[in-house]
Design goal:
Elements (H helix, E strand, L loop, with lengths): L2 E3 L4 E4 L4 H9 L4 E4 L12 H7 L3 E4 L9 H13 L4 E4 L4 H15 L3 H10 L8 H14 L3
């Protein structure tokens, strides 16, 4: 499982397999947040059972790129607040998960959108391939950051 650490509390990856969940638990992760919808290609059908069997708390909030909104993002960030840490956040490729994790880090850590985007790029995330997501990220962070 190739993952990217956002901070001490959050790590992001693409789709996980049962072995990845066991490995995450062994590495000290306490919870998993799955941002995939059940109708996406190659979804792990019994992911919740696999995560719980590994001793991980599990939450699923489907986030489709075309349906991303401030309300949905606020719901996801509140779920991240509530998860036992460290938490593993995933989607298919890690792009949605990365955006949500960095929006969480930015809004909770008092970063503006530019600072958050620079931190994301330094961690290996390149949002330039997803211009709509990048624009949403910037608008959301700048309107929700607690300074």
């Amino acid at each position: 499982m190739e993952s990217k650490k956002v901070n001490d509390e959050l790590t992001v990856t693409g789709q996980v397999a049962p072995d990845d969940l066991q490995q995450a638990a062994q590495q000290g992760f306490k919870s998993v947040l799955n941002l995939r919808a059940s109708d996406e290609k190659d979804v792990l059908a019994d992911e919740e059972q696999q995560a719980r069997a590994a001793g991980l708390e599990y939450t699923n909030i489907p986030v489709k790129k075309e349906e991303i909104s401030p309300e949905l993002t606020t719901r996801v960030l509140a779920a991240i607040d509530a998860l036992p840490k460290p938490a593993l956040i995933h989607c298919a490729s890690g792009m949605r998960a990365g955006a949500m994790a960095f929006m969480h880090a930015a809004t909770r850590g008092g970063m503006n959108a530019q600072e958050a985007m620079e931190k994301a790029q330094a961690s290996g995330f390149d949002c330039s391939a997803e211009p709509q997501l990048k624009q949403f990220f910037e608008q959301y962070v700048d309107s929700h950051t607690q300074r």
